[in-house]
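Render 4-oxalocrotonate tautomerase in 3D.
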Amino acid sequence: MILVYGIKEELNPIKAKLSDVIQHSMHCALGLPEDKRAHRFIPMDKQDFYYPSGRSDRYTVIEINMMEGRKIETKKALIKSLFSSIESELNISPIDIEITIKEQPKHCWGFRGITGDEVQDLNYKVNV
């Protein structure tokens, strides 16, 4: 699951394209299939969205929640792919993008009525 935060006037017009860019990076770096897109956009009023100095109103926060198991190199490749793709496709400078990856043990995930450590039929690999 991916959560994306930004100022609503900046985030709303680019949500669909940003979702495509994020999913492409997730596919290239992690092998995640297109139909596993789980993106949540949280457009915020400017007065409710504080961010570091030196950033513009295009400042965007991307939180990536995933089951643990990916290699450090894989996660770094994902982050770098996101910076590069967002800059080239949406003209948002890396200074205005913050990315965090939050990993939880597989048993802490619940979907389709089971926990992540019980699932046997994923059509992608977690340990990459």
